[in-house]
Amino acid sequence: MKFDKRTIMQMKTLGLILMMLSAALAGCTTGDETGTTDMDLLEAKINDLENSQSDLEDNNAEQEQTNEDLLASISLIESANMQAIQSLESDYQQSLADLESSYIIAIESLILANSQTLDEINETNAAAFDDLLLSLNSLQTNLQNSQYSIDQISLIVDDLDEDEDIVIMLQNLQASLQSSIYDLENRLNNTRAMNDFSYLDFQGSQLFNINNGLGWQIDPPIFDFANLMNASLSYSNMSDASFVNANLAGADGLFSTFHRTDFTRASMVMGLWRQSDFSDAQFVQSNLAYTEFRWSDLSGANLSGARIYGGGNWMGVDLSYADLTNAMMYDLDLRSSNLTGADLTGADLAYLNTSYGPADLTGVTWNNTTCPDGTNSDNNGNTCVNNL
What we know:
Strand content: under 5%
Shape: elongated
Number of strands: 2
Strand order of the largest sheet: 1-2
């Protein structure tokens, strides 16, 4: 059993008191045998106490040694733990460095492969476009030459009215040339329709970097009712194109231009359209569930009747002066988005997640709008600003 220093000092003090009492009693001896016997007993008790004190001091010394041994063991354990932690941290840093190195190598390889693919696509597109222009120029030249021939035949016929056989022959030639002109015109019209890709299947196709900043030399492409599921339209310029009723589920269009592009009734579910230009585009009754338009420009876009829900990331989107009438806007991330002047007439904002953060609602039109808390803007002073 371990005693603290205070207890030991008290026991020493008690022993001294008993010894002093014994000495005092020894000076008061009598001839009485009983007194001598009591003194003997007292001295025996004092001896027992001194022995107990000695045992306690020995036990205390042993306990202190044990404590020192424990402290030494703890120090060794702490040192071993520190070495193990340092070793683990070193291994982790090395593994992290190896992982980052592997990731960088993979990214560089992917960039190189994409760059080579883009170069090949650009070369192919350029060659095909040159061939198309040559064909168009050839058709135009043939038409002009044919028309010139017909005009010359007409002049000859006028001069040869007396030779009936020659006149008939020339008239037949004129008719044949006129038929050729009609044929060439039909071929030219068919060539101009090469921009129509309606109803075709482009699922999973890599259509990125199409017409990037060059402007359409022929009419903008038409992808109405086309299947573009999981296709890539990134880094492209699709301004004025048409995707009416197209299936664009899972497709992506990063850093692209879709100015005035028509996505009416298109399905764009789970699409990735980050940092792209959709200004003045049409999304009437489109399905935009689970889409990401983060930091894209949809200013002036028509999203009337669009279905926009499912936790889509629309952070930083420019929706200024957009038409959002009767749109369903559930659980959207609209942090830092700009809705200045947007029309939310009849829009349903029920369950809109306002915890994502504020948006600029300056000049918004609130008319029969369902607010996030389920109330109607008409009953809240024609606004939902205080009911978000």
